[in-house]
Amino acid sequence: VTRITQLSACLIAAALLAACTNEAVEAERAAAAQKAEIAAAEMAAASEAEVVDSADDDLDIPDPIDLPQFEARKNLMRAMGGAGRRVGSSNMDEAREAATQIGEYSLAARHPRFQPEGPEYDAFAIELWRRNQEVQLAMAPDGDRSLLQQALRGQRDACQACHTAYRIEED
Ligand code: HEC
Asked: Which residue has the CA at smallest separation from atom 40 of ligand 1?
């Protein structure tokens, strides 16, 4: 009888242990799930912060400038076309000078004198300014030349995006 009692006590203990182990596993699982949830929330918060960061970038966009040597936008754009051809030059001095001009012209294009089109036009000109910054970065003495061709393509695309939107034929 004693044996049987001992045995059943043992069995009960074993069952309790198993129950305990199960509970522990469950608790661990729940904790892991919670950790994953927290990590996901943190990631969401981080990408939200990034959105805020890129909104901050907008604040760094320079104000429009007036380049009085260009009487009308057409004149500005002709100069832009010239700079657009020189910017691909293998002569880095010439290419850099042209890139600097494109940057200035992109700011001048947003001057109220040239900007009867409104906020969408403004956004296209800002996009050109941004792409031009990448070109200038890649062209800088310590810049990453391997990024240059791609940056130049991006700049070219920014010209074309505006021209396409306003149905402008480049010559
Ligand atoms: C924000 C809009 C916008 C962007 C960006 C833009 N252009 Fe233009 N472009 C125009 C408009 C508008 C005209 C038409 C000019 C006019 O007749 O007033 C034009 C016309 C031109 C012309 C024809 C000028 C002529 O002889 O009539 C050339 C060349 C040109 N753009 C080159 C460029 C190049 C190169 C870039 C990029 C480096 C560029 N543009 C970026 C709006 C833009």
From this structure: 159
